[in-house]
Specification:
CATH architecture: 2-Layer Sandwich
Shape: globular
Number of strands: 5
Largest sheet: 5 strands, antiparallel
Number of domains: 1
Radius of gyration: 18 Å
Number of helices: 5
Domain PAS: 6-58
Protein name: PAS/PAC sensor protein
Helix content: 40-55%
Order of helices and strands: HEEHHHEEEH
Organism: Desulfuromonas acetoxidans (strain DSM 684 / 11070)
Strand content: 25-35%
Domain PAC: 83-135
CATH superfamily: PAS domain
Structural class: alpha+beta
Strand order of the largest sheet: 2-1-5-4-3
Pfam family, one: PAS_4
Length: 146
C-alpha cells in the first residue's frame, strides 16, 4: 500500500531534521537513525543501525540507563514521557556532548511496549557557556567577599 501525503511528510521531516531522531527496539537495538543523529554523533546510518544504544551512552551511565530502560519496556510506564531530559552523550570519536531529549514509548498491536523513540538536540555549546558564566560568577562573589 503506498504512503499517504501525510506519511510522506512525516517521513521527510524525521529523515531530514537537524535534531537526532532515533528509535530503539525492546532490546535497545537502534532501528531508526536520521541525518541529525549522524551529524550529532558521527555514526552513519549504516554504522548505527543494529547497534546497541551503548554507542552513544557514556560507560558510567550505562547501568542506570539500562535499569530504567528495562523497567520502561517491562511496565509500559515512563516518568519521562513529557519531560525534557538533559544527559551527556557519546560521539563516535568518544567525545562527550551535552544533550537534551524527549522520548516516546511506542507499543505494538497488542499494546505492549515495542521500543523507545527519542528526539535529541546537542546543547554542548550552551552548556559550556553556562559553565563559564557560573565560574565567572563564583570568582566575582569570592572577590566581593574578600
Amino acid at each position: 500500500m503506498p504512503l499517504t501525503r501525510d506519511q510522506h511528510l512525516y517521513s521527510d521531516i524525521a529523515a531530514n531534521a537537524a535534531d537526532a531522531i532515533m528509535y530503539a527496539d525492546r532490546d535497545g537495538i537502534i532501528r531508526l537513525w536520521n541525518r541529525g543523529a549522524q551529524r550529532i554523533f558521527g555514526f552513519s546510518t549504516e554504522e548505527a543501525l543494529g547497534q546497541s544504544l551503548d554507542i552513544i551512552i557514556p560507560p558510567k551511565l550505562r547501568e542506570r540507563h539500562w535499569q530504567g530502560y528495562a523497567t520502561c519496556i517491562k511496565t509500559g510506564n515512563t516518568r519521562y514521557g513529557d519531560k525534557l531530559l538533559s544527559v551527556p552523550a557519546l560521539t563516535k570519536s568518544s567525545e562527550q556532548c551535552s544533550s537534551e531529549f524527549s522520548i516516546v514509548l511506542l507499543t505494538d498491536s497488542q499494546g505492549k511496549p515495542s521500543g523507545v523513540a527519542a528526539i535529541l538536540r546537542d546543547v554542548t555549546e550552551r552548556w559550556e557557556k553556562d559553565q563559564q558564566l557560573r565560574r565567572r560568577l563564583r570568582e566575582l562573589e569570592q572577590a566581593l567577599n574578600k
